[in-house]
Amino acid sequence: MNTPRPTILIVEDETYILKVLKTLLEADAYRVLLAKNAAAAEMAVASHMPDLILLDLGLPDQDGIVFLQELRRWSQVPVIVVSARNLEQDKILALDNGADDYIAKPFSAPELLARIRAVLRRRTGSALPEDSYNVGGFFIDFNKRSVSVDGQPIRLTQVEYRIVELIARNPGKVLTYSFLIHNIWGPYADAENNRILRVNMSNIRRKIEKDRMAPRYILTEIGVGYRMAEQIPGDKKQR
Amino acid sequence: MQRRSMPALERRILRCLSTAVLSVLLYPLFSFLFHESWYALPFLPITGVFFSFRERSGILRGILGMLACIPFIVLDALTGRTFPIGFAIAVCLSSAGIAWMLGKVYGQQAGRARDLGRELAQVQSVSNLSGSLLTASAPHQLYTLTLQSLYSVTDCPCVLFTPQGETFRREASIPEGLMLYPADNLLHYCANRSRRCGRGTDYSNSSPLSVFPVKGEHSLLAVAAILTGTDRVLEEPVLSTIEHLLLRTGIAMERLTYLDREHAILMDKELEHMRSDFLRSISHDLRTPLTGIIGACSTLEQEGVTIGESDRRELVHGVHEEATWLLRIVENLLSVTRVGSSGPKLNRSEEPVEELLAEVLDKTRSRFPAVDLRISQPDRLVLVPVDPTLIVQVLMNLVDNAVKYAGSSPIELSAVEEEEEIRFILRDHGPGLSEEALANLFEPYGHHPGDYGHGMGLGLSICRSIITAHGGTIEGENAPDGGAVFTVTLPKETL
Fold first, then answer.
1. Alpha-helix residue ranges (DSSP H) falling in B351-427
2. Contact check, Cβ <8 Å, A223/B347
3. For chain B, which end, N or C, has fewer CB atoms within 10 Å of the first or last residue's CB respectively?
């Protein structure tokens, strides 16, 4: 890494966890800022412009979701939400309110570091709208609206293509079911569309995945949504 | 009574005419038999009586029968036969009178029989109702049955209300979308005094509604309103039938409330039982890994004791393992609070079975890299309305279980689609379940904790509560050729 060390702001009220995270991140060569509550976090974001925020949702002075909503009004700094609330609704709420990723407590060190790397990479890479995206054998050309796997063109229906495109334009980011539904069928689409989305995804997987029981390109976040793979586990040993 | 108005009159005229025609047809027969035509005359009205059996208007037929004779009398006169007209007329009149009387008597009898029949029908409807009321399992079913009986007894639209504090809630009506002017004053009067009011009573006689209380042992349970209209008043025996009907309804309603209460008490008991079992097994399940963690940490913290690098690593690894196990227990506990006391709070959505299985496969591969989990499923896409996290958790608990028993022998997880349900079958090739384990497989503390290292019973009992909350079933058994088989059945439609 020849770029300057990225700065990470940890917003967390548990001193012990804060200490563990700090040790972990500093050992991985990040600069670390600490904030124990929402007010301190806001100041730290304004004055230090961190490259990434690790946000715990259970803050003493403010609901983490509200903090996130307010932050998103003036800053696009990447946020990874860390929370002990391991319910899908909380994940969905955080993602739909502008979080870039979500990691549930407790998490393992390598998992957290991988997520941080992914979000940072996404941020630096996505300055320009991409013309295409590829991961492993999967390739999508947004201009030609074509998809191929291992060089073989894949025939997708209109709706299937739109789903794949939407997911591929946000690699690594979990797109919630409702986000996908609203972006594909419009803001007034209802729950019935969930069924349609799932059926379409099943068809897409039958077309692009070798083994639909172990999808490699479009991954499921159970109960939350879908995510485009950024790396194929077999390709590079990074996770 | 009201029903036969116009068509009945026509029917009556028709019948009279037919009598007359028959009389005419029979006349030659009689005159042949008696050689003198006038002897036959009295028989004519009597034939009339025969055919007027079902009618009160025997006199009409008598007269008609007489009139029918006139052409024959004239014929006799023309052929020159003499006959005493005065006598003939007297006979005719008297037989007409007899016919009329007989007809009258018969008519009364028939009327009485009809009334009896109607009463019998009403008694029958009461007893039918009470029979079906006793089997009714939901209040709404009860209301509908009551209204159906009321309707069949009165032929009038009717509505059933239940008191909700100071107001009344409309529970059901026949016909279903019946529009009613608000009649709260009637309902309140009826409810407060527990007596009939509205049409046909001294309170609000001008109303088109007749309102009846449905009484329970201690309180008023409901109010039934019958829309008789202002041109009709309900009278005996209909009134007493209605009262009987509503009495049965009251009894049935009370029965339902008692049943509900009893059920709630049972549920509470079961829940309480479950909770205490739970706490017992949790404290055991938590204590075991915590002992390991604390032991390892305090060993590492000890000053002045040198621990070799490999030992140190082993201890730290142990802490990690035990903590991971603790986490799994906590995850299970969280699920229980989700499906726990205040009713199931499932976060259901239509989930593709293949995604659920893929998740289980993914988790199994990362948790037990050495284990061979083989998955089979229907070719076509099947959606099942479940809480995906919880169902994956159930399946993972079963996989954990299988790995624990069967070690590294292959585990098979298959999904089978049936008409109305989805079955997940998890089968291992281990030693299978012991008799004892089979007996109380899903009880939180049913096992000998020692045999299973980390308490497995807790996981299975949680599986059961999750699956029950989904309206499904979970069963464990041994395969004929060895190994344990767990079957989870989930309905395809939410109830």
1. 353-367, 388-406
2. yes
3. C
Q: Which amino acid is at A66?
A: V
- Whole-number Å distance between alpha carbons of B450 and B421: 36
Give the closest-approach CA distance of A226 to chain B in angstroms: 11
A235: left (phi over 0), alpha (psi -120 to 50) or beta: alpha
Backbone angles phi, psi at B345, to 5 degrees: -115, 65
| Cα B430 to Cα B425: distance, rounded to the nearest angstrom | 15
CB-nearest to A106 from B327, B347, B361 is B327
Strands B158-164, B197-198: pairing is unpaired
Q: Which two tokens stand for residue B488?
A: 């989870």
Instruction: Count the residues in chain A.
Output: 239
pTM of the model: 0.58
Give B397→chain A minimum CA distance, Å. 17
Task: Provide the residue range defining the domain that includes B232.
Answer: 139-248
Q: Considering the domain A7-125 in this protein, what is its CATH number?
A: 3.40.50.2300
Residues of A whose CB is below 8 A from B323: 106
CATH of domain A132-228: 1.10.10.10
The amino acid at residue A67 is: F
Bridge partner list, B350:
B385
Segment A103-151, tens digit of pLDDT: 888 788 888 998 898 888 877 665 556 788 888 889 999 999 999 999 9
Domain count, chain B: 4
Would you call B327 an interface residue with chain A, using a CB distance cutoff of 8 Å? yes
ipTM of this complex: 0.81
Closest C-alpha to A99, from A127, A122, A76: A76
The helix or strand, by DSSP H or E, that contains position B277, with its residue range, turns out to be: helix B238-301
